[in-house]
Design goal:
15 helices, alpha/beta, 6-stranded mixed beta sheet, 2 domains, Purple Acid Phosphatase, chain A, domain 2, 5'-nucleotidase,  domain 2
């Protein structure tokens, strides 16, 4: 037996152990959190709607992450949700009752994600698909504010991830926008309730106190918002919860390199894997004391044309990509003329009317509301395939028919008109005349009524000459209105639709309805009926000029 050297009454090994503990938090540490959000099934660096290569997707993101890990080993990698829905690659997989594992989970496992927040679109294909994807993941799915209903068999999500990195205990709290029930079919979230995000963070921070985390990061699938605690986008309100060091968020498909609110660091990477967020925390410690966050900063690492795709991820995605391409190449109908969406938000468009035609038909509605999600859509003369229909309607929204009235139509159009800014006289020729605070996909146009948007009038009073079947539309006139499930939830200012009686809802998403409809009809509309226009004429010309210029900058021409 080896002899043990002692010092006084204490053995030397014990002295060394206590000294090690006392100095455990001495010095400084650098911890990096990398984050993606709203990947929406983007694996390949390709735009499925054009068939062209694109600077996006997990295959390219994987290359950036490898480079970051080579520079800094102390990394936690997280995703903020909306992951298993969005591209034709995921759509074909989800709809085919697959035996394979979810392609996004396979790729994220290979890349080495530590956690993922549950997004609202994870519920789009139902709980069976959600749970299958979750079971494929080698990392936890987090949401502190999605709870199983009492007595239900719903599988609980973890509230947080706790991971020690280089002696620093890091907590990541997941939060999901609580608006899911306003958008989804009840069976798609059966057994779950959605609590307010602010209170959920507060409770989780309190419960985490017993774990003594050194660093607390919230990974939120919600936008910045205006501070309403339980709103769809409540990140600003979450930032006021004591005990948080940073929030990385998504949902709104915007991008924010760095912002600070009350000392809390905020950042948002771009959707579709077009950038990753990089949060760097410097922690300092003194013997016998906990780590202290001495500095923090965030930035965005952008995917570019020059970013090479990781061959391992491409190999994982290969069979799923091939299946998506076969689906997209299926012929649907014919078009007698070439059509594009360049001016589709500043004037009546045959492409938007194609959406209205389908919605009015299936919903048996008198009025239809729809937006042009993708002004870059282009339909050639001749064969029209699933690819062109998918590029026109890029989301898997459901179609609703609701009971409404003339007042509801007027209010919805006034809300949509916020997409433009007011102008008078020569100012209408200068531009820009679009409101950067209103996203283009939240600008709805209507069919079944005729109207004008007069930008010389103040916001809220711009809809003029609103008629239905040739007569002024009375506020009390009862109407059957076609809208998608997101509009029915009242988001993006369309609160007039919230709570309206739903008299019919589609079994298929609107894109599939369009494919079915035009496969039967055989031909897309070739011109618009001109049921709406923008005033004054100078403003319309300015908007057209700017739309063409933006298309040229984007390479659409």
């Amino acid at each position: 037996m080896a002899s043990m050297i002692t010092t006084g009454r204490m053995p030397v090994p014990l002295v060394l152990t206590l000294l090690a503990v006392a100095s455990l938090h001495a010095g400084s540490r650098s911890i990096v959190v990398l984050a993606t959000t709203d990947l929406h099934g983007n694996l390949y660096p390709v735009d499925y709607f054009t068939g062209q290569q694109a600077s996006r997707g997990l295959a390219k993101v994987a290359t950036l992450i490898k480079a970051e890990r080579a520079r800094q080993p102390n990394i936690i990698l997280i995703d903020c949700g909306d992951t298993i829905q969005g591209t034709p690659l995921e759509y074909v997989y989800q709809k085919s009752s697959p035996l394979h594992e979810d392609p996004m989970m396979l790729a994220m496992n290979r890349i080495g994600y530590d956690a993922m927040t549950v997004g609202n679109h994870e519920f789009n294909f139902g709980l069976k698909n959600l749970h299958r994807a979750r079971s494929n993941a080698l990392f936890p799915w987090l949401s502190a504010n999605i709870k199983p209903e009492p007595g239900s068999k719903a599988q609980a999500f973890g509230s947080y991830l706790l991971k020690t990195v280089d002696g620093v205990k890091v907590a990541v709290i997941g939060i999901t926008t609580p608006a899911v029930p306003t958008w989804e079919k009840p069976e798609n979230y059966a057994g779950y309730r959605f609590e307010g995000g602010v209170e959920a963070v507060r409770k989780t921070v309190t419960s985490l106190a017993r774990e003594h985390p050194d660093l607390v990061v919230v990974a939120a699938h919600a936008g910045l918002g205006e501070g309403t605690p339980d709103d769809e986008n409540m990140v600003r309100a979450i930032s006021a919860v004591p005990g948080i060091d940073a929030i990385v968020f998504g949902h709104t498909h915007q991008e924010l390199a760095e912002q600070r609110l009350g000392g809390v660091l905020l950042t948002q990477p771009k959707n579709w894997g077009m950038s990753i967020a990089r949060l760097v925390f410097t922690l300092e410690g003194e013997p016998g004391k906990p780590w202290r966050v001495a500095a923090k900063r965030s930035s965005l690492v952008k995917v570019t044309d020059q970013t090479p795709a990781d061959p391992e991820i491409l190999e994982i995605a290969k069979p799923f990509h091939a299946a998506a391409e076969r689906y997209l190449s299926t012929e649907v109908a014919r078009s007698s003329v070439p059509l594009d969406g360049v001016l589709g938000r500043v004037g009546d468009s045959a492409l938007v009317e194609a959406i209205h035609e389908v919605q009015l038909q299936y919903a048996r509605a008198e009025v239809s509301f729809a937006s042009l999600f993708n002004p870059g859509v282009s339909v050639p003369a001749g064969s029209v395939t699933v690819r062109q229909i998918a590029s026109l309607y890029i989301y898997e929204n459901e179609l609703f028919a609701i009971e409404g009235d003339g007042r509801m139509v007027k209010e919805a159009l006034e809300n949509a008109a916020r997409f433009f800014v007011s102008c008078v006289g020569e100012a209408c020729g200068k531009g820009p005349l679009t409101n950067r605070n209103v996203l283009g996909f939240n600008y709805d146009m209507a069919q079944g009524v005729s109207y004008e948007i007069d930008l010389s009038k103040p916001e809220g009073s711009r809809i003029v000459n609103l008629t239905f079947k040739g007569a002024p539309l009375a506020p009390g006139r009862k109407l059957r209105i076609a809208i998608n499930n997101y509009r029915a939830g009242g988001s993006a200012g369309y609160s007039m639709f919230r709570g309206a009686k739903v008299v019919w809802r589609s079994a298929e998403d609107i894109r599939q309805l369009m494919i079915d409809y035009f496969t039967e009809r055989g031909k897309l509309p070739d011109k618009a009926d001109g049921n709406w226009r923008i005033l004054p004429e100078l403003a319309r010309k300015t908007l057209e000029r700017d739309a063409r210029a933006e298309a040229a900058r984007s390479g659409l021409f």
